[in-house]
TrEMBL record, chain A:
It comes from Nonomuraea soli. The keyword rRNA-binding does not apply. InterPro entries: ABC_transp_permease. The lineage of its organism: Bacteria, Bacillati, Actinomycetota, Actinomycetes, Streptosporangiales. GO terms for molecular function: transmembrane transporter activity. It holds the Pfam family BPD_transp_2. The chain crosses the membrane at residues 7-25, 37-58, 65-82, 88-107, 114-132, 152-169, 198-218, 230-247, 254-276, 282-302. This is Ribose transport system permease protein. It is a multi-pass membrane protein. One of its GO terms (cellular component) is plasma membrane.
From TrEMBL, chain C:
The keyword Zinc does not apply. This is Ribose transport system ATP-binding protein. PANTHER family: CARBOHYDRATE TRANSPORT ATP-BINDING PROTEIN MG119-RELATED, GALACTOFURANOSE TRANSPORTER ATP-BINDING PROTEIN YTFR. PROSITE patterns: ABC_TRANSPORTER_1 (PS00211), ABC_TRANSPORTER_2 (PS50893). CDD domains: ABC_Carb_Monos_I (cd03216), ABC_Carb_Monos_II (cd03215). Keywords: ATP-binding, Nucleotide-binding, Repeat, Transport. GO terms for molecular function: ATP binding; ATP hydrolysis activity. The keyword Nucleotide-binding applies.
UniProtKB/TrEMBL annotation, chain D:
It is found in: Cell membrane. Keywords: Cell membrane, Membrane, Transmembrane, Transmembrane helix. This is Ribose transport system permease protein. It comes from Nonomuraea soli. The chain crosses the membrane at residues 6-26, 85-110, 150-176, 188-221, 233-250, 255-274, 280-298. It is a multi-pass membrane protein.
Amino acid sequence: MRDLAGRLGYLVLAATAVAYLAVYATGLGRLPTAFDYLSILNTTLPLVFVAIGQSLVVLTGGIDLSVGGTVSLCVAVTAVAVTGFEQLPLVLAIGTACGVVNGLIVAAGRIAPILATLATLPIFTGAALWVLPVPGGSIPPQIRAVLTNPDLPTGLIWLGLAVAGWLVLRRTRFGMRVYAIGSDAGAARAVGVPVERVTFGVYALSGLCCALAAVFYVSTTTAGDANAGAPFILTSIAAVVVGGVAFTGGRGSAVGAVAGAAALALVIDVLFFAGIDPLYQALFQGLFLVVAVMLGSLAMLLRRAT
Amino acid sequence: MNLHRLASAAVILLLAAACGQAPQSTAGNTPAPDRKLKIALSNSFIGNQWRVEMENVFKAACAMPPYLAQVECSIYNAGNDVSTQSRQIANLISQGVDGIVINAASTSGLNGVVQQACDRGIVVVSFDNTVDAACGLTVNTDQIAFGKQLAQFIVDQLGGKGNVVMVTGVAGTGADNDRNKGAKEVFAANPGITVVATYSGMWDSATAQRATSAQLPALPQVDGVWVSGGTDGVIKAFGAAKRPMPVFGGEAENGFRKYMAGILTPKVTGMSIGQPPYLSVISLELARAVIKKEHPRESITIPFPVVTSESLKPGETVFPDLPDSFFADFTDSGPDAALILCQEAATDGTPCPGKTLTVNLGTS
Amino acid sequence: MTSTAPVPTLHTFAVRATGVDRAFGGVRALRDASFSARPGEIHALAGENGAGKSTLIKVLCGLVAPDRGRVEVNGRVATAFQELSLLPDLTVAENLLLADPPRGRLGLVRRGRLAPEARRILERFGVDHIDSRAVCADLPVSHRQVVELVRVLATEPRVVFLDEPTAALPDRQVEWLAGHMRRLRDEGCCVIFTSHRWREIERLADRVTVMRNGTHVATREKLAEAEAVTLMSGRTLGAMYPEIPPPATAGPALSFSDPGGISFDLRPGEILGVGGLAGQGQRELFLTLFGAGRPARVTVDGRPIRIRRPKDAIRAGLGIAYVPEDRKAEGLFLPLSVRDNITLATLGRRSAAGFVRRGAERAEVAGIVSRLGIAGGGAAAGTLSGGNQQKVVMARWLLADARVLLLFDVTRGVDAATKHDLYRLVAELARAGKAILYYSSETEEIAHLCHRVLVLREGRVAAELPGPVRDAERIVAAAIADGEAHA
Amino acid sequence: MRRVLYAFGAAGGVLLLGTILHPGFASWPSLQAMLVVASFTGFVAAGQMLVVLVGGIDLSIPWVLNGAAIMLTTTALGQPGRLPYALLVALAVGAAAGLANGLGVAWLGVPAVVMTLGMNGVLQGLSLGLSKGLTCATCGSYAPEPLRGLFPLGALLVWAGVALLVTVVLTLTTFGRRVYAVGVNPRAAYLAGVGVRGVTVALYTLSGVFAALAGVMLVGYGGQPSLGLGDPYLFESIAAVVVGGVSILGGRGHYAGVVAGALTLVAVTTFLQAQRVPEYGRLMIYGLVILVILLAYGRTRAHD
């Protein structure tokens, strides 16, 4: 049953995918085409990356509300400053720097993560507005062709790399320590895990993931917007919980969060093809979130009962 | 329980379905003349009155001749989330619609998917918060002129001398920036005018009221107020603080116009310019006309309806029975009107009884 | 207290602490404590609960910085903590190999190798009945304790601290542990352990250091139990326990009958001891009776009553009270005032229309505080000493007029003087007609304080001894009789 | 208690700075205006604080507030006679939403973040769907006159009433004692016979009621609801609660501090606007102020 809770993300994704196929087929009388899959892939990628970063933080028992600001800032910088591949490291460095600031406040300042990142959220958002006061900017087509090519599934490569990156991370000592801290920070410290350093690293990685998400965002939309990050705050948290990562830390995986992100994207399509009155859409999205997580809680309860 | 395998199987099924399907060209460029056109409205956020009216008039227009017979309409909201809106537009492409009318969550955020729609021969018309993508058509008012005209009105009323407050909109959006830019140009050109405060009302009456209330006590005498949106809130704040009413230049909220018309007291002197909600209907007509090849493939800029305290007409440009937050310019007026709509179209989205809608796209 | 002896090149000590002070909040856990242990010896650290053993270990292994004083360590240190330091959501293998996981090329952890490698370690220590892929939270406590010990022993340290390593171990595993301790000692390692079982200290230790009240009392090679107890408590063995009055002859205050194998009557004024090795179902029994475990059926004054949650137990027409061993986790609200802590369970009785009647409350609190001699009445509960904290929890239930007291290891972590107070209090409560169910991890206490002792094994009553038993060995004997068959 | 003083100190500091740079910044009319604006945050934060006191969080505030505001106007139809009934309906909407949150969190074990986030969506869908986007032309969606007449002084009295009520409930009643006990140590509270789930459900319900009250007051202030009415209050309520010295881990904090927190936030915003700091600078300074206060509290944590 522990396994069921851990695999919640895959199950929800599978169920949503089946529902998607069903409503699509009944609505249009055919199955989705390559175009549909490609556009799902490309529009989901930014959330996938933010969700990976968020899941790392949640695995240590924290939460990162500042992802909204970090994504906004990196989107702004990407749209304004990136003229070729050589500037991409700059964006990644800025995202990581945002994460480093969070990491310092959380690990060294010993401020609760939700508060630390609540405070840095407006700071990063303000910086984004400063960089890009009006939506605009651009991204060089050669970058777009490689990242989110509208005609070729290049996004699959990056999705694969992201998942592979996670699997590699999971196989480092750092990865093991992330779980150790989330499971019981006090005990982890007692067995010699450098809790502060790992916590710091996790927030830095979350910042890096936000930067990656921002680059993909600009690549799909071809321009920047300083308010772009705001929706990612709550959707990334939703993706993480739907993906079966426990809020108490220590349980779940970033791949689950990726599945959760994909499921959330598919829900939009399910609602679309099911012809739900647009005014009621939020209702179903809210229910989806609560029910998905309730299934997870139920699985845990059953496990405890056995 | 092998749920994991089950899940994998479902995903594989999904992918298999992807490979099994040959990519299909979706929409033909010229539909058969007898077929109903499919035109969809993709709106970003339904969270304010203007957007609701905009959808309502769209809905009403679709239920009125000639659209009733010619067009099959659908409406989608994306909750101000760019990726949701992009998903919806992608799904519209899959559905094979003929035209998409967009009010965007981000002027830049939909460029990618709009380009894809264009590539498939779909006519894309964006309005209000328009899309940058070059292939798409736009229907809009001139936002810089909006800012300028309101500012000029204030300057003229004050005789070129006095203290002015600017209440701006949602920072980081194109419309806010353009309006502010226009206004600042005019104020800067008049050395007698001092801008004593600039703050954001978020295009929301309640927010504008709160921000103004908090500001006012620290402000010197204010002679004119330029408001990007939420004007009635600003007036209420002045009233609550018992400050003399300055000259207002603002949006087309019914509440503002009620003050201007003296329906609410105190009567204020002002100019009200609207971003008309019927932009959605004009966009619908443009899309229809372009698809039917009745109109060149061109963007249009429509003049915005302007009223002053003197020119207001109850029942036409100000509505005593409707809420303050209502946008009073849901219909155009006058002999050269782009279109005439009835009240219930805006309030309930129901068609105006026994009326055929004629939309004048102008000569452009 | 020679503070700066030059460090010899050939170390005569493996660890050494000199003049160490350490306080937590207002409580001084260590005061001018000194300690030294040599390589190649098994060194027992003895002392009552609250004497500072655990804190000293934490200071010696570097987990807690001393406020003052000096700590020297030679060689790699590994520590098994009293409160287990296993990570509950990780597997046994991950826990064992967290510090040094098997790595392949690129330095990546070979996750496939984790379980087999861990299994090899478990085999090496002869405990391969534990599944290395199991998640620790799912294991029984004794297995977790074994995993914790294996984790420590497998690192081949030069200095090993084992804090109460046998507390949750069945006897056979104690033998197993003893074997490994001796092996390490013979390999030149310094093994330091604490235990509350004198038998183990006598059998295993080459030297014993006794601590009391956070400071060093004596270090000896041979130490008889009687003398040790005197050293640890500062008083002689016999004087520790008060006379217990005979129980009332009235009918039972409470009858409990569990199809699982435990049933008993508890009479007013009776102190019924629950003995046995640690983790044999004592805690579950107490929680069940209090409604915090499985739903329970009890008979009170001939009436059957169902207890499904603590509220039921507290009401139930009889007032059952539970005083837990882990005050901080289960009993107290540390940042709240002593008053708030004491009156929480009885707020309803001192309120009018939902408002607390503060006058009545003040008077009652003042009464109970002075009756129990709780020091620091107005302060936050967190600033009190362990003994006073325990009294605060007792006070809560005395105010509630509880007729049945479930006292679960209430003397854990309490200094000798307070312990003595608590014994007197227990006797006094019995005299006042309270029915008391008593468990302690120190079997001595049960042997001396109880009218009757139920010895539990694997959740069932293995024996019932009439009390006072006086000789703790008899309880232990009853607890382990034919126990080997199960282990 | 020290944190409450810090919070008031912060508010006073900002007002002082404002007065130095802008004479009249802390004059009574100015103060009164700021107090009114702060009161909205204060209402919402009262509920948020109660939930935070037991280690929870309420993210459903924006649409509970909106839903209640819409219910009020569509029920009252602008007629003073219907006001009491409409008030009851609006607050009941808040209570129902809060109750559902509480039941989900306490009985079904759904994490508070998820439960309340989902509830926000559910309420958004229901509010928009059932009110058809609020465009009920016949109902003249106005707050009845008596409610509008509350401003400014009446509203401040309502806030003072709420402050008094919350403070009295938390410090003088048995319920308040139980709240702190649950917040500090839920397990021990359960073992002391406190109905932990009941307390939790009650607090979430109250949070819903306070969010609804904020909606009612905002409608009275602006005269009518707008759909984005609740959006600013989500993060602002959390910020007011933590600036007010309430521990996010639960069990510690006083409403007096939250009042100071709400005032501080409004004073900072007003001051920055008066300084004509551009939007991006305002956001950054706002964040920095919260951060500095948090760090100041962080330093004192070891002592209390």
